Amino acid sequence: MRIVKLYIALFVFTGLIAGCNDDPIFSGDDSNGGGSGSPTEFGNISLNSKIPTEIPLAGGPGTQDLRVRQRLFMGNSNATLVYTGYGADDSPFIDRIYRVDETTNTALDEVSVVTSRTWPVMSGDESTLIYEKVGELFVIDPATGVSRQIGASSTFSFEDITTTDDGSLVAFISDADLDGNNPGGFDQIFTLTTDGTDVFTQVSAFTADFFATVERQIEFSGDGNKLFFHSDDDVLGDGSNADGSSEVFSIDADGSNLTQLTDINSTIPFTRVSLHSDSAGENLAFTIEGDLYTYNQTADQTTFIESLVDTGNAEAVFRMHTISADGSRIFYSQIIPDGSGYELILYTNVPNGSNEEALFRTGSRTETSVGGASANPIVANLYSSSTGSYVSFLSRFDFGATENGDNSWQVYTYTR
Fold it and tell me: Could you give phi then psi for residue 171, rounded to 5 degrees?
């Protein structure tokens, strides 16, 4: 396992970085456009939504403030975008799942914030959104709003979900004995078919709870061949992680080739983690408490990219980095305290840490001007297009679009 530490100095530019590469400018998905919405004064940033500031009161006349829960869900293009939000006066809180359109918002379903234990996930081809509702798993077609329950024949506890590019499988962590292979009740990785056949498969065969002391997250490679997870246990049982450091592991979807990928020897527990894979499972991007790393399978190389400025739990909750499906490009955002407020810089580079570009900086912004507490990042939930030609994100910053003059959360796309 090779570890490369690449310390990258911050670029100090006063405006937009233009002409840094030869990629074509698109305006939807990778074939016909990303960022097809209203252009802004930042040039390459387009507004893709019109998220309202108020929604109707539940069960009565009047309106209530809409609280966007800083969660955007996207596949490998921004042709279909979904976000979650709740009404400020809801009691109990109910998360509403919305499809984003440039001029309207379409409600798809509602889930209880109190009972929900995991965030939704979108398939890479945008055909399927998988989410938890009242302790059960559901799939919905974001285009039509048609939903159905999966795994209905079993009642089981689960944490974290991840899916493939085609949405045919969902993986999760559970201590249930779903296919007769987990009588000990240990936390295991399972997959479940989403086509209605409800086939459960236990992927792992762990003999201890290797997820007990860490924040639980697993990640499918888009092709469905590999699953990635993190643990501070000696998962392989061979002493390779006897020091209990926080490391990333992989396992094939058929249960073979359990492998420890990294050897960072970090004593910082994965209490806040964000782990993302490309479609082939060749390149990973992940954080340990705000430190951003990449991992390349072929080279067996871990590269330190940047210490992200983490206000509160911003990186883990708000997905401040992403990797393209083809593995060619990562994006990440930095929130820079400057004494009077915060400045946002959006960066991109290739997974080995070279060719870094500062795509844009906002300039100094006070807490009031970004419309939220300092723990809220100006840019949240980064999602790359399949080839890295553009990146979409949520932001409260008004990038010169008059539609966002109230500094509400909106969806933007930066096109390279």
Answer: -115, 150
* pLDDT at residue 377 tops 60: no
Q: What is the pLDDT of residues 176-229, one digit of tens each?
A: 998 899 999 999 999 999 999 999 999 999 999 888 655 678 999 999 999 999
- Asked if pLDDT for residue 31 goes beyond 50, the answer is no
Tens of pLDDT, residue by residue over 47-88, are 888 888 888 887 778 888 887 766 889 999 999 999 988 888
- Is-contact 241 230, C-beta < 8 A? no
The CA distance from 410 to 398, in Å, is 9
What pTM does this model have?
Answer: 0.85
* Residue-level pLDDT at 367: 46
Residue 111 clears pLDDT 50, i.e. is over it: yes
| CA dihedral of residues 197, 166, 163, 225 (deg, nearest 10) | 90
β-pairing verdict for 390-395 and 379-384: antiparallel
- Report the C-alpha gap between 122 and 116 in whole angstroms: 17
Average confidence (pLDDT) over 273-298 = 90
Total number of domains constituting the chain:
1
CA distance 165 to 125: 6
Averaged pLDDT, 20-32: 29
Q: Tell me the one-letter amino acid at 362.
A: T
Question: Is residue 371 predicted with pLDDT exceeding 80?
Answer: no
Q: Provide, for the chain, the percentages of residues in helix, strand and coil under a 3-state DSSP scheme, each rounded to the nearest 5.
A: 5, 40, 55
Expressed as residue numbers, the domain containing 7 is: 2-415
Q: Which two tokens stand for residue 83?
A: 């976000």
Residue 367 backbone zone (phi > 0: left; psi -120 to 50: alpha; other: beta): alpha
Structure tokens at 297: 């399978």
Q: Is 262 helix (H, G, I), strand (E, B) or coil?
A: coil
CATH number at residue 286: 2.120.10.30
- d(CA 107, CA 125) in angstroms, rounded, equals 20
Residues 6 or more apart whose CB falls under 8 angstroms from that of 217 comprise: 160, 229, 230, 273, 274, 275
Among 337, 166, 236, CA closest to 248: 236
Q: Which residues pair with 337 in a beta bridge?
A: 342
